[in-house]
Amino acid sequence: MHTIMSRNFRTCLLLILSVFVFLQTNCKSGRENKGVEAPSKSYSVNSNPDLGASIHEAAMKGDLVRISQLLERGWNVDTLDQDGRTALIYAAYNGNTNLLRLLIQNGASVNLRDINGSTALMMASSGPYPDAVKLLLDNQADPNITDRNEHFSALMYASSEGQLEVAKILLEYKADPFLKDIDGDNALNFAKMNNHPEVAALLKSFMEKSQEK
Length: 213
What we know:
Blueprint: H1 7-19, H2 55-61, H3 64-72, H4 87-93, H5 97-105, H6 120-125, H7 130-138, H8 154-160, H9 164-172, H10 187-193, H11 197-212
């Protein structure tokens, strides 16, 4: 049985996260509502009290000024927090294209994975963030990486959340709709299970055309 949070539930968690810096959450819903686990704030592995808030907290808040200051003072753009997440992953979770661009320009690695195997692209793909998704893909994000626990891909997240424009972009950038998770389900299955007929129609048509070639 899959236990992944829905996008709406993630929104509630983000409100909590904005108040409680060190809150860790394990709230989950059923298989029918796939989504990316909400990033939880934690101490940076390389945190420096002289610099104030960590790069991860600043990224979650979308604080470009603070991020710029931290980078100018030598903060490693790929610093990991206790969950193995980078500032890029937090920025992607919120679809913050300006922050993503800043981090990438400063050498952020787009395909780093957190302790669950989730990437920045997976985070962005679960929300209504086609611009963020395209930016990541244009900078060599791999659309066919799967997470470690359930083997979900970015396209599976987009499909389960009904993100039609995101799904279109992922397919354009060679996301594989035939990938299956540990239970044998693919992106089309998730679109159908979560009642997203437009996404299901897109995937079905794409898969049929692929098989005809």
